[in-house]
Amino acid sequence: MTELLLKNVRPFGGAATDILIRDGRIVRIGKADASAAEVEDGGGAIAIPGLIEAHAHLDKSLWGMGWHVHQAGPALEDKISTERRLRRELNIDPARQSARQVALAASHGTTAIRSHVDIDTDQKLWCFEGVAATRERFRDVMDIEIVAFPQSGLMIRPGTLELMDEALANGADVVGGLDPCGIDRDPKGQLDAIFGLAEKHGKPIDIHLHEADDLGAFSMEMIIERTRALGMQGKVTISHAFCLGMTDRARAASLTEQLAHQDIAIATTAPASRPVPMAAELRRAGVRLCAGSDGIRDTWGPYGNLDMLERALFIGLRNNFRNDADVEYALHICTQGGADVMELADYGLREGAFADIVLLDAETVPEAVAARPKRKLVLKRGKPVARDGQALFTVE
Description:
Helix 2 packs across helix 3 and helix 5 packs parallel to helix 6. The protein starts with a strand and ends in a 5-residue tail after the last strand. The protein is globular, with a radius of gyration of 21 Å. The chain contains 11 helices and 16 strands. The strands form 2 sheets. It has an 8-stranded mixed sheet with strand order 3-2-1-4-13-14-15-16. Strands 5-6-7-8-9-10-11-12 form an 8-stranded parallel sheet. It has 2 domains: 87 residues, Roll (Urease, subunit C, domain 1); 292 residues, Metal-dependent hydrolases (TIM Barrel, Alpha-Beta Barrel). By secondary structure, it is of the alpha/beta class.
């Protein structure tokens, strides 16, 4: 039996108390006897549950590889084809690069990641196998969920469907999809194939939907229709969902209502450059919302650092959140919101939950989001995995 006592910590910025952890779980929140436990003095730090990175691309970052001049054109197809070419030219090894990102994410307080992993007829299962190896290697410090993702298209690249099927049979957790109209030009074909894989393997779905305005609304309606018909309520996520930021707010409201009825979740990165789903509207409608960093420091662009506390800041800025309650909700999206979408068992800052805990030096939760202090301590199942912004494990 192992015990750790966190003394003098403030859950969600409340009154100072203790958290007793035994065998990786929180057994008591309240004043506790330290006689049988290792003691860690929190010094009045805020305690929050582990941050959840619910939309990443662990297989494709250039992190740690030096600076590379951006080469991709502005169109989505340009970025996809350039990335496919540069993977081998630059040796963007998915096992090495995903491991580097695990250490980076842990240093920022993330304890679980949903990663979309490219599967196509050029790379075949190389990216999946690399991230799967990282998932196994670091299973004690990070929960990693793998989405089998047809980044280059599904219907337009014969053979991809069979590779997706193979990945799902060999441990991929989620069926991915991408712009059924804009990429494949065959929304019925792609969505039938994706939902068919989900039904065959008993897996949830997460579909990238960059399509804007009416085109995106059309694709979203087809996703909603299949979710209803196949009884997949609570098992489908739509990532990005830029069409919900359309100027036709009446149609966006209708789509939002349908999403709520079918319990389809939305994953956002809160980008500054595109119309985005409005967090407050989704919340009022009862739509589950999670967040992620998307790709970081990759062939698509130079930005990002896998810091989900910073992502909460971006959500607050993008949604004009100013009062404390709204800023706290931005953090909720990056914690409990992601845990709900990933269906993480026994998550949270409560007795009986796994002790995935982050300590932050701040007066309040909104201040922590605004200031983004270094993570004082990060625990995974009660064991320290990062301290003062540095991971306590090596990846090289």
